[in-house]
Known about the structure:
The complex is a heterodimer of chains A (115) and B (416).
Chain A: E1 2-11, H1 21-40, E2 43-48, E3 56-61, E4 64-69, E5 77-87, H2 90-104, E6 108-112
Antiparallel strand pairs in A: 1-5, 1-6, 2-5, 3-4
Chain B: H1 4-25, H2 28-49, H3 55-73, H4 78-92, H5 97-108, H6 112-120, H7 127-137, H8 143-150, H9 154-170, H10 183-202, H11 213-229, H12 234-247, H13 273-289, H14 294-307, H15 316-329, H16 333-347, H17 349-357, H18 368-381, H19 384-397, H20 401-412
Amino acid sequence: MAQYLLSVWHDDTYEVDFSSDEMKRVVAQVDDFNNELRASGSWVFAGGLHPATSATVVRTVGDEVSMTDGPYAESKEQMGGFWVIEAPDLDAALDWARRGAAACEGPVEVRPFEG
Amino acid sequence: MNDPSLAAVFQHEAGRCTATLIRILGDIDLAEDAVAEAFVIAAEKWPVTGIPPNPGGWITTTARNRAIDWLRRESTRTDRHIAAHRLNETMDYDESPEMQALDAFVDVVPDDQLRLMFLCCHPALSADARVALTLRLLGGLSTPEIARSFLIPEATMAQRIVRAKHKLRDNHAPYRVPSAAELPDRLRAVLAVIYLVFTAGHTAPESDELVRADLSEEAIRLTRVLVGLMPDEPEAAGLLALLLLTDARRRARTTADGELVPLRDQDRGLWDRDLIAEGHALVRACLRRNQPGQYQIQAAIAAVHADAANAEATDWAQIVALYDQLYMLRPNGVVAMNRAIAVGEHDGPVAGLAALGEVEAGQLDEYQPFHAASADLFARAGDVDSARFEYDRAIELTENEVERRFLIRKRSRLTG
């Protein structure tokens, strides 16, 4: 078994309004998907993130600590949430990613953990 | 590898051995290293002992034993230790679940190379990486050879291959043939790759001979396996027909002393009638299915050539129409160029040059056949200076010695 990060990406201007019909549909789909992951034993961890504007970057140089506001990568696309799953191989992970992408209605990046 | 018999064994067996070693070892790099090492040992031993009766089996066994040695020595590295352990288990206990799973698999597809083909053509890889990896692992081509057939720098190609191998490894890509549900999508990538392997054999890069028949035959063999497994897939049948009809001309493509003969001048009596008959039957079956695709159309073009008693009798109007159909599916410069060549036969060299002029400027600048075709059309149109210029470009770009001599001969015959 290997572990994979399945991350969900969206435009940084994307604003989530959980009261909208669209978001209610997506949340229901993601809940179903999460239940499938748990039932199959593939679930390790998952969560949605606050927007990238909520991020802080911390760096150390020697004993000095510096902090900057905002996400590390000044990118138009930001990670909005992720799953960590356990799967026997890449094809199984890609299949979960396909279903996750359909559930959250957005692209999902698959990346293997080391080890 | 100066010994020609050893080089021949390498060409025939390297891909097969690597495919089996990947299954046994579960590691592409290790499998490649082990097979390379086995050939080094063969180069030392075979001149003394002679080539063993089953050279592929000898290479596979020697490579496997070398890999076991390495794994035992490197067993401080945990992952390799696990691999070595698994390897011993697999070999000592044939009743292991892993071995039984492999046996079950072997019933479905009796070919490690097919498994390797689907791995190399995994959708998680870029299209370029798929072809490169297949040529490297199954075709036994070196990185410089592959770089040349893709018209890109060697360092870029080396990086592309390494990255692809590591991606498959780091992602735990499975070594299997895809399930029935996945197969249609995965097959398209495999067909594209086999066609390129055939092309690499048809005019072998970096070679003193025009044809590396082993690569062409290997491509045909892999396509036959595919068609056998997927008899209802028209494009697989179309690809097989295309390869057979093209390969049927092999004997006529070179003279007794190895010089190139263009399609127009070939002795059609030398064309392999059995391959043509098989190709024709496949094309007819494809036409009945009426689900055209790029390989089926190209096979139909080859079938029109095969029908003609000589170049003049060729139904060029039909060929131009088929290229038009192909261009609808695959609007790229190479198709446009081949269409222009057909137009040049049907309506004369001036019309051919006009059609060639429609190919997007610069798109085929580094593509040798484009300059050879331009040169031929200019020569026939009486524009000797332009023909000479284009032959020079083509001669400069060709990687094949036979093709180079052919182009030099054509250039020297220009008058005016």
